[in-house]
Amino acid sequence: MSEPIPTGCASIDGLLGGGFERGAVTQLYGPPAAGKTNLALAAATAIAASGEKSLYIDTEGVSVDRFEQLAATDAGEEQSVEAIAGRVIISDALDFQEQEEAVRDAEAFADQVELIVLDSATGFYRLKRDSDG
Questions:
Q1: pLDDT above 70: residue 125
Q2: Whether residue 80 has a cis bond before it, omega within 30° of 0
Q3: What residues have CB less than 8 Å from 22, skipping those under 6 apart?
Q4: Within 13 Å of residue 25, how many CA atoms lie on the same side as its CB?
Q5: Element (DSSP H or E) covering residue 115
Q6: Counted domains in the chain
Q7: Considering the domain boundaries, does residue 82 fall inside one?
Q8: Is 52 in contact with 114 (CB distance < 8 Å)?
Q9: For residues 88 and 53, is the Cβ–Cβ distance under 8 A?
Q10: At what angle do helices 64-74 and 36-49 cross, to 10 degrees?
Q11: What is the CATH number of the domain that holds 78?
Q12: What would the pLDDT profile of 9-58 be if each residue is shown by its tens digit?
């Protein structure tokens, strides 16, 4: 069995037996502001800090400041925030079509990255549902 993917949060890694299962789809679910994006971003930066790459498909407008904070926490004397940031590929999807394309394109990255994050899979559906009233 392969090593789990660390979440970047030791207490959650403990609950999950070391982190997210490799080669599996893991869905984070919860109310707004529960920390789903922070956990996904922390996992992406933890992977990058370990020297591997991650792909982060962003439909929610990820906070650059929060990303820099997490990367700074993971950075040490051996590597810079910029080095960590260079191993996180961020793909912005601003509508349904771009999200579909980004998910389709993720297949091309699957062999090059340790983690693929889709944040959020449901955001555009919520917006459409709310606008349809």
A1: no
A2: no
A3: 2, 3, 4, 5, 114
A4: 4
A5: strand 115-119
A6: 1
A7: yes
A8: yes
A9: yes
A10: 40
A11: 3.40.50.300
A12: 999 999 999 999 998 999 999 998 999 999 999 999 999 999 999 999 99
Which amino acid type is present at position 26?
A: T
Please state the length of the chain.
133
pTM for the full predicted model: 0.86
Residue 54 near residue 47, CB atoms below 8 Å: yes
- Residue 110: give the domain boundaries: 10-132
Per the domain annotation, does 114 fall within a domain?
yes
Phi, psi of 113 (to 5 degrees): -125, 155
Query: Does 1 reside within a domain?
Result: no
Could you give the CA distance from residue 94 to residue 12 in angstroms, rounded to a whole number?
A: 30
d(CA 102, CA 98): 6
Burial class for 27, CB neighbours closer than 10 Å (0-12, 13-18, 19+): exposed
